[in-house]
Structure of AMP-binding protein:
Amino acid sequence: MAEPLALEHLLAHGRPSGHTVARCEDGMRDFGALRARVAGWRAAFAAHGGQRYALFTEDTFDFATALLGAWHAGACVYLPADARPATLDALKAHVDGFAGRAPQGLTALTPAMGGTAPAFEPLSPGLAALVVYTSGSSGEPTAIPKRLSQLSSEVATLGALFDAEAGDVPVLATVSHQHIYGLLFRVLWPLTSGRPFDAHALPYPEDILAALQAGPGLLVASPAHLKRLPATLDWASVRGNLRGLFSSGGPLTPEALQACRDLLGRAPVEVYGSSETGGVAWRRRDTDDSASWRTMPGVEVRADEDALRVRSPHLPADDWFTTEDRARPVPGGFELLGRRDRLLKLEEKRVSLSAMERTLVAGGLLREARVLPLTEGHRVILAVVGVPDAEGWRLQESGGRRSLSQALREKLAPHFESSALPRRFRYLEAMPVNSQGKSTEAALAALFDPKRPPFRVLERSGERALLEVEVPANSPYFDGHFPGSPILPGVVQVEWALLLGREHFALPPDFLRLETLKFQQVITPGTQLTVELTWAKESGRLGFKLTSAAGSHASGRIVLGGAVG
C-alpha cells in the first residue's frame, strides 16, 4: 500500500509522479497530472480574485483538482448538490465565481494551462475549506461550513478503520462527489490513502458488474443502488473482485441487506452521519440484522430525551451537537429509533417536506399544500394534499386533475430531485381538520386510501355536503365484477358514502345498521357522480344519495353509534 498522507500535506509532501490517481474514460491520470492540474486551477482562482467559489462538475478527477486548486489559492468551495438553474442561481449572492458549471450569463472558471508549477506549501488546518448545504428543521436550506481540519480528521479516521482491509484496490462509486459522503469516500480518502479512484460514476447495476469484471475494486454505494441489484446478473463471477463495500445516506432496508449478502457475498459497511456531524458511527451486519452502531474513534455520543447528541473532531466546535434522530445508548454505541423532524430521506436524498410545501404555494395554483410520505409496496413516495386557488381550479376544470398535477410537478422540478417529486395528488376545497383545528397526517393519509374515490366539494355545511365524485375506470373494485361488463358493487357504494361522510363530519365510530337502502341503476366505469350526504347528529344517521346525468343510482341511511373521539 502507498504511504498515507494527511490532507494538509498531500501536495506539499507529494507522491511519485507516476503514481496512479484516477482512472478516466480516456486513460489513467497519475500524480504528476494531478499536480499540474491543481496548479492550473490555483492560478485561475488567484487571477480571478475572491475567496468563495461554487464548484460543480461530473468528472471526479476534474472535481478533485479544482477543489485542491481552490484550497491552495486560499479559497473556500461551496458545494451545490446539483446543477439545477434554481440551485446555482441561489448561490450567486454567496460566491465570487463558479468553477465547472455556471448559471446562464456567467462564465465558469477553467484551469490555466502550461508553465512551471511553483512548489506547494502545506495547507492550514484552520482553512475555511468547504460549505455544503442541507435542510434544517425549518426546511430552509442551511449552509454547513467545514474547516480543513474537520475533513482531514475524518479521512484519517476512515483510513484507521478501513485501510488495512480495503488494500490498494481502486475505488468505484455509485454516489456523487458533490455530496459529503461521496466527497469523503470517493475523493479525499482515496487521495490521502494513495488508492486510485474512478473518475466516472456507476449509475446502473450493469455498470457495477462491468467495472468489477474488469478487476478488483472497492464499491462506495447508497441504499438506493443496493436495493436494486437484479438477481439476473452474474454477481457470482465478481464476488472475488469486490474487496470492500460501503453504504451511507439512509437506512439500508432488510431486503437490500439480504440482497448484498446473497448476490455480492458480503454485507456492506454502513456509515451513519450527516452533513453537519460528519461520520459518527458504523456497522457491518454480516449475520445480525439488528446490530447496533459502533462509534468512530474520537467520537462521543449520548442520548438526551431520546435525541442523539454527538461530540466529535468532525464538528466545528467542541460542543455537543443535537441531531434530528432519536437513539438509545448501548455499550460501545447506540441504536437508532427514527427521525425527530419533518425531514425525509427519500432515495437517500434528504427532502424537506416544509420547503416543498412552501414552493408549491409560492408557485401559484394552490392556496395551501401539505406534503406527506406514503408507503407503496417496498418504497416511499411523496403525496400532496392541495387547496387550489381560482387559477388552479380553472386548470383542473379545463384540463382535468392530471393537468393540475403535472403543472405542480413542473413548478417543483427546478428545486428538487426528480426522484423526490410527488406522485400522488388530492385537491380539496379546504384541508380536513380535527376538533383542535389541526390537519393530522393520519387524516391526510386517509385521503389516499385506495378505497376512497377522487372527489370535489360543491357545497358544504355542518349538516350537509354535496360532492362531485369521479368513478375511476381503473378502480380495483371493477375487477371480476363482472368480466366484460364491469359495475361498481353496491357494498362499495355504501362504503364510499361512509368514508366520505367521516371526512366531512365528526361521525361516531361504530356501524350499527343500514336503513331504507335502495339501488336504482348500476354505476359503470368513468361515471361522474353527485353524492349528497346529510348528517343528523341527534339520531346518529348519515343519509346518502348517489345521482348522475343518468338519474338516481343509490340512496339510504347509515346508523352509527359510540362516542366521538
In short: The mean pLDDT is 89. The first helix runs from residue 10 to 13. Residues 178 and 466 are 52 Å apart (CA to CA).
